[in-house]
Protein 1
Amino acid sequence: YLPPARMTSVQGMANALLTNEGIINGGLLNGHKELSFFTTCPETGAYLRARTDVYDFGTGMVVDVKKCKDASESGFRSAVATYSYHVQVAFYWHVLKTLGIVVNDFLFACVEPQNGHKVAVYGLCNETIEQGRREAFQAIATWLKCRETGIFPGYPEGICCITLPGWRRDSLFDQ
């Protein structure tokens, strides 16, 4: 059950995606929805899984739908950095490749939950995906080490002192 206001927002976002000319003309929502993929990483032996929003076996395209507070280019760039979407791209690509499934492109269909449900579609440059690959393999290595040792990283114990980040400090604080 969704509250009426949330249902209205969800329906608005869905309609915006389903009627966007770029998405329609690009066939971005063609293909299978909500597919799960499972495999074992040949490099690390780790069990891997990925769930695509849309995968088109005919074109090898993965489309991930993202609800974005700000779907502008700069807004989504910030979201990629904040939420590590570049790691998701590299990880999903690796899972599918390991299964012998072709991935020719990975796109994000971004939609705003308010303000007219603006829509934008983005891909990531190769350098960003490569960084995501490095970070994904580091995360896999960390996970395997945690499973092996039974020690999982967490927050520091005790009381920690927090200072404002440099960009938020006023000039008096730095004197």
Protein 2
Amino acid sequence: SVTNNEFEIHTNNTLRVKIDSTGRVTMPSQPCVSARASYTDIPINTVTVITLDNERFDIGSNLASSTFTAPVTGKYLFTYTIYFSNVDTAATSLGVQTVTSNRQYENWFAPDHIANTDFYYTATSSQIADMDANDTLQFKAYCGGGAAQTDVHSDSQISITLIA
């Protein structure tokens, strides 16, 4: 529909694209999710799926069981802020893996080179991933060595959105 002040595109009587009088474009059905990430006592020497819960929003309901499933083929932007707490300085590696059906993205550091006592660390990253319809994306943590005491604090967040 068209008015003097805005332009809208509807399909099946549902608003899909809106351009308002200032030129701002919104797409209320665009897949987008934001959720809390957490995990208690990451197992040692084991790649572990980070729990995604407490969704702030999930447009399209594409996040289930800590796995995002792409509803359509496209380019997806994902970001995360993973706040590790109680990091054991005896650990030789700690990292976040973002694993899609097509590729794996990694962010690593060596706790035994950073501090002399247990500490906190925040890992952040963003990436644009090429995903086909029904491809999946998971965020995973790995802790090599030390004690199984490192947590993904519940203040951690992930976001995923279709951008093209």
